[in-house]
Amino acid sequence: MKRKLSVLIISILLFTGCSTTKEPINLYYAKKEIKEYFEDSTRYWKEVWRICNEAKKYAEKNLDKSKNNIAIFDIDETSLNNLEYMKEFDFGYTQESWEAWVDSAKATAIQPVLELYLFLKEKGVKIFFITGRHESKYIKDPDPTIKNLNNVGFKNIDGVFFKPRTPKMKTSEFKSQIRKKLVEGNGYHILLNIGDQESDFWGEYPGKVFKLPNPAYMTF
User: pTM value?
Assistant: First the structure.
Protein backbone atom coordinates (compact mmCIF):
# COMPACT_ATOMS: atom_id res chain seq x y z
CA MET A 1 0.00 0.00 0.00
CA LYS A 2 2.85 2.37 0.91
CA ARG A 3 4.49 1.67 -2.47
CA LYS A 4 1.26 2.41 -4.34
CA LEU A 5 0.85 5.64 -2.38
CA SER A 6 4.41 6.70 -3.17
CA VAL A 7 3.86 6.05 -6.87
CA LEU A 8 0.63 8.05 -6.75
CA ILE A 9 2.32 11.00 -5.04
CA ILE A 10 5.20 10.97 -7.56
CA SER A 11 2.69 10.81 -10.44
CA ILE A 12 0.74 13.80 -9.09
CA LEU A 13 3.95 15.81 -8.65
CA LEU A 14 5.10 15.00 -12.18
CA PHE A 15 1.69 15.83 -13.63
CA THR A 16 1.33 19.14 -11.79
CA GLY A 17 4.90 20.05 -12.64
CA CYS A 18 4.41 19.35 -16.33
CA SER A 19 1.15 21.26 -16.42
CA THR A 20 2.53 24.46 -14.87
CA THR A 21 6.12 24.78 -16.01
CA LYS A 22 5.59 25.40 -19.72
CA GLU A 23 2.86 27.12 -21.69
CA PRO A 24 1.65 25.14 -24.75
CA ILE A 25 2.49 26.52 -28.18
CA ASN A 26 0.00 29.14 -29.34
CA LEU A 27 -2.59 27.65 -31.70
CA TYR A 28 -1.82 30.24 -34.38
CA TYR A 29 1.82 29.18 -34.52
CA ALA A 30 0.95 25.49 -34.33
CA LYS A 31 -1.28 25.79 -37.42
CA LYS A 32 1.34 27.87 -39.20
CA GLU A 33 3.99 25.24 -38.50
CA ILE A 34 1.76 22.44 -39.78
CA LYS A 35 1.03 24.32 -43.04
CA GLU A 36 4.73 24.94 -43.58
CA TYR A 37 5.55 21.31 -42.81
CA PHE A 38 3.07 19.97 -45.38
CA GLU A 39 4.32 22.37 -48.04
CA ASP A 40 8.06 21.86 -47.43
CA SER A 41 9.58 19.39 -49.89
CA THR A 42 12.55 18.79 -47.61
CA ARG A 43 10.44 17.72 -44.62
CA TYR A 44 6.99 16.19 -45.21
CA TRP A 45 7.49 15.13 -48.82
CA LYS A 46 10.98 13.80 -48.20
CA GLU A 47 9.62 11.59 -45.43
CA VAL A 48 6.71 10.35 -47.56
CA TRP A 49 9.08 9.44 -50.40
CA ARG A 50 11.35 7.60 -47.95
CA ILE A 51 8.50 5.52 -46.52
CA CYS A 52 7.07 4.65 -49.94
CA ASN A 53 10.48 3.60 -51.21
CA GLU A 54 10.83 1.37 -48.15
CA ALA A 55 7.45 -0.15 -48.97
CA LYS A 56 8.56 -0.87 -52.54
CA LYS A 57 11.73 -2.58 -51.31
CA TYR A 58 9.75 -4.62 -48.81
CA ALA A 59 7.25 -5.71 -51.45
CA GLU A 60 9.97 -6.68 -53.92
CA LYS A 61 11.79 -8.74 -51.29
CA ASN A 62 8.74 -10.40 -49.69
CA LEU A 63 6.32 -10.93 -52.57
CA ASP A 64 5.39 -14.60 -52.70
CA LYS A 65 3.50 -15.18 -55.94
CA SER A 66 2.07 -18.44 -54.62
CA LYS A 67 -0.11 -16.35 -52.31
CA ASN A 68 -3.16 -14.27 -53.18
CA ASN A 69 -1.46 -10.98 -52.40
CA ILE A 70 -3.21 -7.72 -51.65
CA ALA A 71 -2.20 -4.33 -50.29
CA ILE A 72 -4.39 -2.11 -48.12
CA PHE A 73 -4.39 1.64 -48.81
CA ASP A 74 -6.00 4.34 -46.70
CA ILE A 75 -7.32 7.36 -48.63
CA ASP A 76 -7.19 10.68 -46.77
CA GLU A 77 -3.65 12.00 -46.25
CA THR A 78 -2.41 8.68 -47.60
CA SER A 79 -3.57 8.45 -51.21
CA LEU A 80 -5.36 11.81 -51.51
CA ASN A 81 -4.15 15.15 -50.20
CA ASN A 82 -6.81 17.33 -48.54
CA LEU A 83 -4.56 20.26 -47.63
CA GLU A 84 -6.69 22.63 -49.73
CA TYR A 85 -9.72 21.81 -47.57
CA MET A 86 -7.75 22.03 -44.33
CA LYS A 87 -6.32 25.43 -45.22
CA GLU A 88 -9.68 26.80 -46.37
CA PHE A 89 -11.25 25.95 -43.01
CA ASP A 90 -8.14 26.75 -40.97
CA PHE A 91 -7.90 23.12 -39.85
CA GLY A 92 -11.49 23.22 -38.66
CA TYR A 93 -14.13 20.71 -39.67
CA THR A 94 -17.85 20.27 -40.12
CA GLN A 95 -19.52 17.18 -41.52
CA GLU A 96 -21.36 19.26 -44.14
CA SER A 97 -18.28 21.09 -45.42
CA TRP A 98 -16.27 17.88 -45.48
CA GLU A 99 -18.86 15.97 -47.48
CA ALA A 100 -19.12 18.88 -49.93
CA TRP A 101 -15.34 18.75 -50.36
CA VAL A 102 -15.41 14.99 -50.93
CA ASP A 103 -18.21 15.37 -53.49
CA SER A 104 -16.15 17.97 -55.36
CA ALA A 105 -13.53 15.27 -56.11
CA LYS A 106 -10.78 17.92 -56.07
CA ALA A 107 -8.21 16.30 -53.79
CA THR A 108 -4.80 15.78 -55.35
CA ALA A 109 -2.74 12.59 -55.39
CA ILE A 110 0.02 12.02 -52.91
CA GLN A 111 2.52 11.25 -55.63
CA PRO A 112 4.86 8.85 -53.81
CA VAL A 113 1.86 6.73 -52.80
CA LEU A 114 0.50 6.79 -56.35
CA GLU A 115 3.86 5.51 -57.58
CA LEU A 116 3.78 2.77 -54.93
CA TYR A 117 0.27 1.86 -56.10
CA LEU A 118 1.37 1.59 -59.73
CA PHE A 119 4.46 -0.40 -58.73
CA LEU A 120 2.36 -2.94 -56.81
CA LYS A 121 -0.19 -3.23 -59.61
CA GLU A 122 2.62 -4.06 -62.05
CA LYS A 123 3.68 -6.82 -59.66
CA GLY A 124 0.18 -8.31 -59.78
CA VAL A 125 -0.80 -7.24 -56.27
CA LYS A 126 -4.48 -6.39 -55.84
CA ILE A 127 -5.14 -3.17 -53.95
CA PHE A 128 -8.10 -2.39 -51.73
CA PHE A 129 -8.83 1.01 -50.26
CA ILE A 130 -10.39 0.96 -46.79
CA THR A 131 -11.53 4.42 -45.75
CA GLY A 132 -13.30 6.26 -42.98
CA ARG A 133 -15.14 8.19 -45.71
CA HIS A 134 -18.81 7.45 -46.34
CA GLU A 135 -20.33 6.91 -49.74
CA SER A 136 -21.79 10.12 -51.12
CA LYS A 137 -25.37 10.92 -50.16
CA TYR A 138 -26.07 12.65 -53.45
CA ILE A 139 -23.74 11.46 -56.21
CA LYS A 140 -23.63 7.90 -57.50
CA ASP A 141 -22.11 5.94 -60.36
CA PRO A 142 -19.35 6.74 -59.86
CA ASP A 143 -19.05 7.78 -56.26
CA PRO A 144 -16.99 11.03 -56.08
CA THR A 145 -14.23 9.35 -54.09
CA ILE A 146 -13.75 6.71 -56.78
CA LYS A 147 -13.93 9.41 -59.45
CA ASN A 148 -11.29 11.44 -57.59
CA LEU A 149 -8.97 8.44 -57.24
CA ASN A 150 -9.32 7.58 -60.93
CA ASN A 151 -8.83 11.17 -62.05
CA VAL A 152 -5.49 11.52 -60.25
CA GLY A 153 -4.09 8.21 -61.47
CA PHE A 154 -5.32 5.41 -59.21
CA LYS A 155 -6.68 3.32 -62.06
CA ASN A 156 -8.06 -0.23 -62.11
CA ILE A 157 -8.96 -0.23 -58.44
CA ASP A 158 -9.76 -3.68 -57.07
CA GLY A 159 -12.14 -2.40 -54.41
CA VAL A 160 -13.07 0.49 -52.11
CA PHE A 161 -14.64 -0.13 -48.72
CA PHE A 162 -16.49 2.88 -47.33
CA LYS A 163 -17.31 3.19 -43.66
CA PRO A 164 -21.07 2.70 -43.20
CA ARG A 165 -23.09 5.58 -41.78
CA THR A 166 -24.86 3.10 -39.53
CA PRO A 167 -24.23 1.38 -37.24
CA LYS A 168 -21.94 3.81 -35.47
CA MET A 169 -18.47 2.40 -34.97
CA LYS A 170 -14.89 3.56 -34.70
CA THR A 171 -13.02 3.75 -37.98
CA SER A 172 -10.35 1.45 -36.56
CA GLU A 173 -12.99 -1.21 -35.80
CA PHE A 174 -14.43 -0.95 -39.30
CA LYS A 175 -11.02 -1.30 -40.94
CA SER A 176 -10.14 -4.29 -38.79
CA GLN A 177 -13.43 -6.00 -39.71
CA ILE A 178 -12.80 -5.51 -43.43
CA ARG A 179 -9.25 -6.85 -43.21
CA LYS A 180 -10.50 -9.90 -41.34
CA LYS A 181 -13.14 -10.48 -44.01
CA LEU A 182 -10.57 -10.17 -46.80
CA VAL A 183 -8.21 -12.65 -45.15
CA GLU A 184 -10.54 -15.18 -43.54
CA GLY A 185 -13.45 -14.85 -45.93
CA ASN A 186 -11.68 -14.33 -49.24
CA GLY A 187 -8.34 -16.03 -48.68
CA TYR A 188 -6.16 -12.98 -49.34
CA HIS A 189 -2.69 -12.40 -47.94
CA ILE A 190 -2.05 -8.81 -46.86
CA LEU A 191 1.41 -7.99 -48.16
CA LEU A 192 1.46 -4.44 -46.80
CA ASN A 193 -0.77 -1.77 -45.31
CA ILE A 194 -0.17 1.96 -45.75
CA GLY A 195 -1.93 4.74 -43.84
CA ASP A 196 -1.39 7.99 -41.99
CA GLN A 197 -2.96 7.10 -38.62
CA GLU A 198 -1.85 4.59 -36.01
CA SER A 199 -5.50 3.55 -35.83
CA ASP A 200 -5.34 2.47 -39.49
CA PHE A 201 -3.45 -0.57 -38.26
CA TRP A 202 -5.25 -1.47 -35.04
CA GLY A 203 -7.05 -4.78 -34.79
CA GLU A 204 -6.67 -7.99 -36.77
CA TYR A 205 -4.48 -8.70 -39.79
CA PRO A 206 -2.64 -5.36 -40.09
CA GLY A 207 -0.02 -6.77 -42.46
CA LYS A 208 3.34 -5.07 -42.78
CA VAL A 209 2.67 -1.49 -41.66
CA PHE A 210 3.94 1.66 -43.37
CA LYS A 211 2.78 4.83 -41.59
CA LEU A 212 2.94 8.23 -43.26
CA PRO A 213 3.27 11.43 -41.22
CA ASN A 214 0.18 13.51 -40.46
CA PRO A 215 0.37 16.19 -37.76
CA ALA A 216 -2.94 17.79 -38.77
CA TYR A 217 -5.52 15.49 -37.15
CA MET A 218 -6.08 12.16 -35.47
CA THR A 219 -8.80 9.56 -36.02
CA PHE A 220 -9.82 6.51 -34.05
Answer: 0.89
